[in-house]
Amino acid sequence: MTDLGAVKSALRQQAIELPSWAFGNSGTRFKVFAQKGVPRTPQEKIADAAQVHAYTGIAPSVALHIPWDAVDDYAALAAYAAEQGVRVGTINANVFQDDDFRLGSVTNPDPAVRRKALDHLLACVDVMDATGSRDLKLWFADGTNYPGQDDIRARQDRLAEALVAVRDRLAPHQRILLEYKLFEPAFYTTDVPDWGTAYAHCLKLGEQAQVVVDTGHHAPGTNIEFIVAFLLREGKLGGFDFNSRFYADDDLMVGAADPFQLFRIMHEVVRGGGYDPAAGIAFMLDQCHNIEAKIPGQIRSVLNAQEATAKALLVDTDALEAAQRAGDVLGANAVLMDAYNTDVRPLLAELRAEDGLDPDPMAAFARSGYLERIAAERVGGQQAGWGA
Ligand code: PSV
Ligand code: MN
Ligand code: MN
After folding, report:
1. d(CA 89, CA 371)
2. Is the keyword Isomerase assigned to this protein (predicted)?
């Protein structure tokens, strides 16, 4: 039997980090649909993220993307976030939106371009110092489009050199989170295409480098929960960029395409001790809301993650282990499915009510009039910086 009190207190510890870019206008290369009231400044993005936290109670931090969220004074931005009831979380570097990076950033054949890319990464660590952030998330668009275009091995050497330089600049409490993605924008080779490549680099870098799993960055059919279980077991899982995919890197709401996969991932997180805050796993969303309203899209995503987590926490581990030991294939599977098939919404509504939150965050936010207010007050909202 599962102890519901223990499940509730575990749920109270949950923290999902929101991406600042989820609040800006976004789209595909075909069209960016402008929405009314979207943020014009990093401060307004933080204010919108704070709404998500206010209604869910489990989204206390906001990830920034530099230079999309560039400001003169990052310490002041962190203070502003605190006033809003949230904090600045992971700093995401951006070495993919400059003409100089056509042939890559830290793996570019031109040393001057590599230097420019590295300088940006180091500047991101300066930002972390000012905001008090722990994690630097590194995703590189680097790769090649044609066989023979560049030397695959030399690019790995250049990547390793840059990563060492960044690691050497970190304070002891700071970490590199290295993100992989199988393709796009590079179509032939990608320099960090998979968890194995990221893991190998992080292993060489040591304690302060960990792998981040973006759930949208795999080939169809990849067993992501296996990757999670493996990395956790090796002490190399740094965090998640949660989102859903149907086709490629769709950046849709987490738990929308495949809630069962999200449950399986969270089950492995719980099983591997990754849900314990001491494990230091960063649970982040990396999403864009191209056609749906952004703040409700983020609230829905946080609730989806919370539901999957509640189900994972409900797994009767004693019964599961007993069935596994006995070689009871169907019994073991049934234990897992029982947890997945539990409707946890009443439990979560009860939890919120106990904690002074509205049991229905979507409805409460809709009633608040916030969207109407920002639509009237904010004119000329910013593009997220992604998907243009
Ligand atoms: C790349 O596709 C990625 O997942 C990286 O995390 C970027 O920083 C992010 O998307 C931007 O949306
Ligand atoms: Mn990502
Ligand atoms: Mn992505």
Report:
1. 24
2. yes
For 291-311, the pLDDT digits (tens) are 999 999 999 999 999 999 999
What's the chain's Rg over C-alpha atoms?
21
Nearest residue (by CA) to ligand 1, atom 9, is: 286
- The rounded distance, in Å, linking the Cα atoms of 383 and 109 is 31
Q: How far apart are CA 107 and CA 74, in angstroms?
A: 29
Residue 381: per-residue pLDDT? 64
Name all residues whose Cβ lies below 6 A of ligand 1.
21, 92, 139, 179, 181, 214, 241, 249, 286, 386
- Write down the ipTM of this complex: 0.99
Helix (H) or strand (E) holding 165: helix 152-169
Least Cα distance to 132 among 58, 66, 81, 84 occurs for: 81
Nearest CA to ligand 1 atom 2: 249
Burial of 377 (0-12, 13-18, 19+ CB in 10 A): exposed
| CA-closest residue to ligand 1 atom 1 | 139
CATH fold for the domain made of 4-377: TIM Barrel (3.20.20)
Q: In the predicted model, what is the mean pLDDT of the chain?
A: 97
- Residue closest via CA to ligand 1's atom 10 equals 286
Q: Quote helix, strand, coil % in the chain, to nearest 5.
A: 50, 15, 40
What distance in Å separates the CA atoms of residue 91 and residue 123, rounded to the nearest whole number? 11
Give the residue, out of 179, 213, 245, 284, with the most ligand 1 atoms within 8 A of its beta carbon, to mutate for a pocket test.
179
Domain range summary for the chain, segments of one domain joined by +:
4-377
One-letter amino acid of 69: D
Question: Residue 2: its pLDDT value, please?
Answer: 82
- Show the CA angle centred on residue 238, arms to residues 235 and 244, nearest 5°: 125
Mean pLDDT of 110-139: 99
Closest ligand 1 atom to 387 CA: 12
